[in-house]
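debug: dumping io for the single-chain case to check the tokenizer round-trip. Nothing else runs in this session.
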Amino acid sequence: MQCLQSRLSPAPLAGAFIAFFVFGQVPLAPPLPDPPPGLEDRDITSAVERRLGLEEAVPEHRIDVTTEDGIVTLSGTVPRLSTQRAAGHAARTVRGVVGVFNEIEVEPTPRLDSSIRVDVVAAITADPVVDIEPIDVEVEQGAVTLRGTVDSALEQSTAEEIAQGVSGVVDVRNLLTFETVNDRPDGDIAADIQNRLRADAALAAGLITVVVEAGEVTLAGSVRSAAERMRAEEQVWTVPGVQAVENNIDVQWWRAEEMADWPDPWTDGLIREAIEEALERNPRVEADEVATTVRDGVAILMGEVESLQAKRTAEEEARNVTGIWQVQNHLQVQPPEERPDARITEDIQEALQRDAYLEQYDIEVQVEDGMAHLRGEVDSLYAGEQAEAIAAAVRGVMDIRSQLEVAGDDLAQADGDMEEHIRSYLQWDPVVDADKVDVEVRAGVAILTGTLDNWTQVRAAERSARWGGATRVVNRLEADRSPQPEN
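debug: decoded output
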């Protein structure tokens, strides 16, 4: 049996695309204060303000931050709905933040509701995850309402995320429902949830407890950050048979070591199964065409996919599995039909103009034999990454060569000052144990050494080094908790 499910959906699980750009050194925020054993609200506020300053899509000078008992309230105005959501997510990633009230108002450049609707429909239609046919889109004074029945929770949340990114949208009311299986045994549902929580490298889920009664899930226990608390709930909604979720997880970052412990070994075979299941769940990837091998924590992807977005998505799904420290992506992009370069170019240009953040840039697009070339100047790395992600999603794009330049001042600083900046960002990252990371800076190049628990922590440490102002990062960190050998 099946029933219809409606919920206020969090943002879908998605990873950032890797891109290469011509850029100078990122301007620096002041170093963050060292987090004391008992974090003070004023220090959390300061850390969140500086974290927002690192979020290139967020105008931090237009946002006010207050904190009470670890709960952060964001207020102010921003020009885009996607920026409002990005600010909320950034605040949740700061150590000591247990919750976020996002009261930021969205004040975009006014557009006709009819024009916004056309762009929302076009953007959803262009995405392979969502079928636009059953979705009714209404727009009133910039506020979008989505109605209809879709196939899954991922499709429901993806449609909402797409609408949020359209220029002129001030809010999205997601009334989409999706069909769920309601006759699965509770024990099977609980086992699937535990497996998915364990397999997610972005979660330290060792202290999360799961109770399922008649398909209604209750989560309890503790995680390291408010962002992890939300991510755990997102994972639960991907499990067939889930009817409702009550999230009672606490944020207790100081218990991070306990959260990583699991009683059973995590072998290459289990990692491979987790990757295959993740690919099977993701409609962007033709999972049957992907052959996955895992050797000593290295995932090797072989086969063919229909789009560049599918290739990148498959790699990111693999990277996000616990125990993986490297992914070798040998997937070949083979579009199901040949499309003229001129039509691909036109589709990329239209998609860039629909995007609320990228519409301000003059990005030149040229496609030759399915290779998309992006040229022009943007003012942030985020803009360049977003442009690549949008181009990769267009049917017929087989690869991208980005020559986007990031404008900005190159700010020089002494190596010692840079080390201080990097260490301060490591200290405030709830994912990384800063005491396990050794930092050395030589002529602006940061060298990271030490051993962390997993690939996610290694990447997070490298991110902190870039935030700290490093012109280049030599990441020699190793990932512990390697998969155990097969019997």
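debug: round-trip ok. The domain at 186-259 is CATH 3.30.1340.30 (Histidine-containing Protein; Chain: A;).
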